[in-house]
Design brief:
Oligomer: heterodimer
Number of domains of chain B: 3
Strand order of the largest sheet of chain B: 1-9-8-7-6-5-4-3-2
CATH superfamily of chain A: Nucleic acid-binding proteins
Radius of gyration of chain A: 15 Å
Number of helices of chain A: 2
Order of helices and strands of chain B: HHEHEEEEEEEE
Structural class of chain B: alpha+beta
Largest sheet of chain A: 5 strands, mixed, barrel
Largest interface: A-B, 36 and 50 residues
Distance between the termini of chain A: 19 Å
Strand content of chain B: 15-25%
Mean pLDDT of chain A: 86
Number of strands of chain A: 6
Number of helices of chain B: 3
Order of helices and strands of chain A: HEEEHEEE
Shape of chain B: globular
Distance between the termini of chain B: 72 Å
Low-confidence stretches of chain A: 1-20
Helix content of chain A: 10-25%
CATH class of chain A: Mainly Beta
Low-confidence stretches of chain B: 1-41
């Protein structure tokens, strides 16, 4: 294992052991379920207490806007995110823990940019 | 000259009124009975840097069930030595969590976490140490815990009222900051909690904390909670904080900047869409 890989593994372990930075009960999210959204970034609200990513999913001509909650910009910026990480118009695949009631919202897990294949968050 | 004397006297009275000292014993209120030399001469340890709590936001990780359970997940609980009365309160809160109707009081972005919860929050910490006081600065919240080490005593009980972080007075034993916190706000309808599993304390809580730097990379706070109403025995919990790389930033945390999670009348945490309207199917 190279030194770089060791560092990456250590950083991943540190990130996984860090407390989650939600300011509210997470009862609305289904932690046991993962939904993959194939869509386009509409807007990023780089704000406290949570970053919100608005994603538009087009299913056979029917467009649905999803509200995806992330951590605080403070914690995300310390883990390599920038306010410009997601840009309006970016085509992405995004994995989320969805709202339990089936409404178009969720908690961010990870994402992959369709054009570059680059990923962010947990993407195994 | 007479005019000047009258003006000076009026000024003294005015200062007394503005600072709330009119008619009060000047020596205690102005200086808190503190000799200035005590607050300026002592050497203090270096706790500089940015730190992050180790592990999840479960206050008492030694007793949490199931192991590695997360605060706020249904069925997760700790085992403080609660009296029957407070065990019943805790169980009721646990049931409300299962029903999705146990809101975190900080969700409204208007109140502090309080103590001891401030020692158990996500994001990062800074510990500002001066001879006269140590300040625990929690980015999340934001939260500030003031620990006075200038030789003052706690205010008499009749002068204390319940506040989120109470009144903390301490001293140094070598490199260990030893302090006691009194005057904590009682949890009423869960308006202040110890963590999101539903732990609460009463206004009889007194908390003794021993805080020290274990090594260059680790801080430790050994917390002993005593509460004659809520606890049958002292409740001991240790929290640890890992130092983040040099140059790490702590940032402003304006919780009300874009709070899209209001609380419904039943205690359910809602989610707002970008138009400011709840996206939840049931908003009661």
């Amino acid at each position: 294992m190279t030194f770089t890989r060791v560092l990456a593994a250590a950083a991943l372990l540190a990130a996984m052991s860090a407390p989650l930075a939600a300011h509210h009960s997470a009862a609305m999210f289904d932690d046991d379920k993962v939904v993959e959204l194939n869509g386009t970034i509409k807007e990023v609200q780089w704000t406290n207490p949570h970053v919100w990513i608005q994603v538009v999913v087009d299913t056979e001509g029917q467009k649905t806007e999803w509200s995806i909650e992330g951590g605080s910009p403070n914690s995300l910026s310390r883990n390599g995110w920038k306010a410009t990480t997601f840009k309006s118009g970016d085509p992405v695949v995004m994995r989320v823990n969805p709202m339990k009631d089936g409404t178009p919202g969720g908690s961010f897990i990870g994402a992959k940019w369709k054009e570059t294949g680059k990923t962010i968050g947990r993407w195994d | 000259m007479r005019t000047a004397l009258l003006a000076a006297a009026a000024c003294v009275v005015a200062i007394g009124i503005v600072t709330g000292q009119a008619g009060a014993p000047a020596a205690r209120n102005v200086r808190g009975g503190v000799e200035e030399s005590k607050s300026t001469s002592a050497a203090v340890p270096d706790w500089s840097g940015v730190w992050q709590m180790v592990g999840p936001t479960v206050f008492d990780r030694a007793t949490v069930q199931p192991q590695n359970g997360r605060a706020g997940d249904p069925g997760v609980r700790e085992f403080p030595p609660y009296t029957d009365e407070y065990e019943a309160i805790y169980r009721k809160n646990i049931e409300r969590i299962k029903a999705g109707t146990f809101p975190d009081p900080i969700s409204v972005c208007g109140v502090p976490h309080g103590f001891p919860r401030i020692m158990n929050v996500p994001d990062v910490y800074e510990f500002a140490v001066t001879p006269a006081a140590t300040y625990v600065l929690a980015e999340n919240g934001p939260g500030i815990l003031r620990i006075y080490t200038d030789g003052r005593k706690h205010p008499p009980a009749e002068e204390l009222w319940g506040t989120y972080t109470g009144a903390s007075v301490g001293h140094w034993e070598g490199d260990t900051l030893v302090f006691e916190t009194r005057g904590l706000k009682e949890s009423r309808d869960n308006d202040v909690i110890v963590d999101r599993t539903g732990l609460v304390l009463s206004d009889a809580a007194k908390v003794a904390t021993r805080m020290r730097k274990v090594n260059d990379m680790m801080m430790e706070a050994a917390i002993t909670v005593e509460d004659s109403k809520a606890l049958k025995a002292p409740w001991k919990v240790t929290k640890q904080y890992r130092k983040l790389p040099a140059g790490t930033w702590a940032w402003d945390y304006g919780c009300a900047e874009n709070n899209r999670n209001p609380i419904s009348n039943s205690g359910k945490t809602l989610t707002l869409g970008p138009d400011g309207k709840p996206i939840d199917k049931n908003t009661n």
